[in-house]
């Protein structure tokens, strides 16, 4: 089997590559990544030593680069590449439209040209918008994105479904809740709070901190993605959740308790514009049809994550300083 992974130097994409190679060492994996600020080849340093792994620096908006990189008859594309930080999308939506919308369409076009057998599109629970207490986002619910980021991901989903309906592309979509775990870029909630707490620095909390998110360990998510890639129904959408819905403040207090740090490190800041109050996915379909269920309880996974960040200070320092980007700029011209 030959897999073409977009965005494989990012947090979830790199975890998918590491776990895939561990389970299927004989299968070819091509990692195609633009190496923007969140793309870090340190995340796949171990995979890079494997003989079936290959890295190609490129942009999914560049059709010629994709044509040169994707093998004819490629077994599957797993499409992680995306601009993904809500705050950045509020400051400027342009990059999100270019990568998440235009880039997805270009990739779909080249996938058809190359005869790719399956297209797995990684989306997000944020396309469902904010939910009232007691309600869960189902796969057949309407999309009501609230942020520029979520809107760009919703648009990408429509393009994937259009390619499946119009051209018969074997495409599957997953929507995952909030991931956490090793190698996550430090601007996200848990690694930002964790690294700040280790240095006794203030931890910013948006508003009252009662925004609810469903947390899933990245390894559980990758296990679900493997099952969907291998067994998911063509044209289907699957929700992947950790069944661990928690307010952000509770997550942070749990983190501080595990670290033995005081709650006084939490510092309320002005809330994000248009901040969604609650996300919650109904993941019963993947559990019922494909037999997947999350295996890592949140507190256990959080403790493992803390241990990893403590044991990898060099990775943290390089990620926070941007040192790795200076190297890529010299080597690939990446920004």
UniProtKB/TrEMBL annotation:
This is dTDP-glucose 4,6-dehydratase. Its EC number is 4.2.1.46. InterPro entries: dTDP_Gluc_deHydtase, NAD(P)-bd_dom, NAD(P)-bd_dom_sf. PANTHER family: DTDP-D-GLUCOSE 4,6-DEHYDRATASE-RELATED. It comes from Chloracidobacterium sp. N. Signal peptide: none annotated. Gene3D superfamilies: NAD(P)-binding Rossmann-like Domain (3.40.50.720), UDP-galactose 4-epimerase, domain 1 (3.90.25.10). Belongs to the NAD(P)-dependent epimerase/dehydratase family. dTDP-glucose dehydratase subfamily. NCBIfam families: dTDP_gluc_dehyt. Its cofactor is NAD(+). It catalyses: dTDP-alpha-D-glucose = dTDP-4-dehydro-6-deoxy-alpha-D-glucose + H2O. GO terms for molecular function: dTDP-glucose 4,6-dehydratase activity. Residues 4-304 form the NAD(P)-binding domain. Keywords: Lyase, NAD.
């Amino acid at each position: 089997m030959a897999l073409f992974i977009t965005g494989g130097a990012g947090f979830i994409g790199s975890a998918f590559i590491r776990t895939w190679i561990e389970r299927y060492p004989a299968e070819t994996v091509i990692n195609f990544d633009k190496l923007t600020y969140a793309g870090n080849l340190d995340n796949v340093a171990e995979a890079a030593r494997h003989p079936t792994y290959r890295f190609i620096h490129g942009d999914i908006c560049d059709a010629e680069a994709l044509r040169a990189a994707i093998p004819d008859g490629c077994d599957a594309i797993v499409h992680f590449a995306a601009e993904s930080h809500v705050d950045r999308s509020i400051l400027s939506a342009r990059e999100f439209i270019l990568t998440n919308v235009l880039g997805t369409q270009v990739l779909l076009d080249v996938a058809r040209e190359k005869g790719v057998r399956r297209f797995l599109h990684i989306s997000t629970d944020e396309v469902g918008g904010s939910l009232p207490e007691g309600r869960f986002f189902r796969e057949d619910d309407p999309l009501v994105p609230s942020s520029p980021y979520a809107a760009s991901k919703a648009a990408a989903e429509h393009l994937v479904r259009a390619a499946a309906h119009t051209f018969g592309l074997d495409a599957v979509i997953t929507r995952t809740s909030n991931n956490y775990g090793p190698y996550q870029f430090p601007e996200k909630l848990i690694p930002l709070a964790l690294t700040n707490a280790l240095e006794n620095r203030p931890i910013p909390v948006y508003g009252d901190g009662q925004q609810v998110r469903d947390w899933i360990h990245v390894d559980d998510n990758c296990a679900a993605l493997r099952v969907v890639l291998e067994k998911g129904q063509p044209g289907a959408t699957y929700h992947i959740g950790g069944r661990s819905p928690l307010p952000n403040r509770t997550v942070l207090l749990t983190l501080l308790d595990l670290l033995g740090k005081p709650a006084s490190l939490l510092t309320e800041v002005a809330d994000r514009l248009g901040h969604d109050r609650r996300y919650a996915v109904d993941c019963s379909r993947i559990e019922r049809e494909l037999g997947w269920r999350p295996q890592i309880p949140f507190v256990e996974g959080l403790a493992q994550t803390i241990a990893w960040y403590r044991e990898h200070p060099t990775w943290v320092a390089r990620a926070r300083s941007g040192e790795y980007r200076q190297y890529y700029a010299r080597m690939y011209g990446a920004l």
